[in-house]
């Protein structure tokens, strides 16, 4: 059984923030947890992201580049989109959804039996529908607080991000700094 796990970094970070979580300390732990509990076999790990332009912030660019290389050393394939400035001079990530959708299709054509997408964006719907017609099983990992109804309906199985977080070793979770009552509420309602 060939499985691929595809993680959209910024989409996942946004979902985690809504759960009161800043991030995951070691990303390999997230992949291995999904693989152990939700895959039918050994999985290929893929990470979709973008870096800030070096001319915009060279220190941040170097830091992100080192992060990407560290992921690759752990066996995670890194796929980079790009960033541009919009009309209001805000940095915007581009190409990540397209890269992820193309890889969903490519992995299906390459004979992967199962694809697990960690993202709440509906941009992948046409691709998901196409690979399912070819017989590929598609699962989605998404938070219960994410508005992902169409995506959830399109996939063969939905895996709760909250459940995945519960299965991670607690020391792997970086919590956002909240007042204690808010943090307790988040932990009680989203993490058992």
Structure description:
The protein has 192 residues and is an alpha/beta fold. The protein has one domain (3-190): Rossmann fold (3-Layer(aba) Sandwich), CATH 3.40.50.1010. It has eight helices and ten strands. The protein has helices at residues 9-18, 27-38, 58-73, 96-109, 125-133, 149-154, 161-167, 180-190, and strands at residues 3-8, 21-24, 43-49, 76-80, 82-85, 91-94, 114-118, 137-142, 157-160, 173-175. Strands 4-3-1-7-8-9 form a six-stranded parallel beta sheet, sandwiched between helices. Strand 8, helix 6 and strand 9 form a beta-alpha-beta unit. Helix 4 (96-109) packs parallel to helix 5. It is globular.
Describe the oligomeric state of these chains in a short phrase: single chain
- Main CATH class: Alpha Beta
What is the terminal separation in angstroms? 31 Å
Q: Which CATH-level-2 architecture?
A: 3-Layer(aba) Sandwich
CATH superfamily: 5'-nuclease
Are there runs of 5+ residues with pLDDT below 50, and where? none
**How many domains make up the 3D coordinates?**
1
Quickly count the helices: 8
User: What name does the CATH topology carry?
Assistant: Rossmann fold
Order of helices and strands: EHEHEHEEEHEHEHEHEH
Rounded Rg: 17 Å
Provide the β-strand percentage band: 25-35%
Largest sheet: 6 strands, parallel
* Mean of residue pLDDT values: 90
Blueprint of the fold:
Elements: E1 3-8, H1 9-18, E2 21-24, H2 27-38, E3 43-49, H3 58-73, E4 76-80, E5 82-85, E6 91-94, H4 96-109, E7 114-118, H5 125-133, E8 137-142, H6 149-154, E9 157-160, H7 161-167, E10 173-175, H8 180-190
Parallel strand pairs: 1-3, 1-7, 3-4, 7-8, 8-9
Antiparallel strand pairs: 2-10, 5-6
Helix pairs in contact: 4-5
């Amino acid at each position: 059984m060939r499985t691929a796990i595809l993680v959209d970094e910024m989409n996942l970070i946004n979902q985690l923030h809504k759960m009161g979580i800043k991030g995951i300390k070691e990303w390999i732990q997230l992949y291995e947890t999904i693989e152990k509990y939700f895959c039918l076999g050994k999985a290929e790990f893929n990470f979709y992201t973008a870096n800030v332009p070096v001319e915009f912030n060279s220190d941040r660019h170097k830091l992100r580049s080192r992060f990407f290389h560290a992921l690759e050393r752990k066996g995670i394939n890194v796929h980079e989109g790009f960033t541009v400035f919009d009309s209001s001079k805000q940095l915007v990530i581009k190409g990540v959804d397209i890269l992820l959708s193309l890889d969903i299709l490519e992995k299906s054509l390459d004979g992967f039996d199962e694809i697990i997408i960690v993202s709440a964006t509906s941009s992948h719907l046409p691709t998901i529908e196409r690979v399912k017609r070819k017989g590929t099983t598609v699962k989605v990992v998404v938070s219960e607080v994410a508005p992902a109804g169409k995506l959830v309906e399109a996939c063969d199985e939905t895996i709760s991000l909250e459940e995945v977080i519960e299965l991670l070793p607690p020391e792997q979770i970086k919590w956002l700094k909240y007042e204690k009552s808010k943090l307790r509420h988040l932990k009680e309602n989203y993490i058992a």
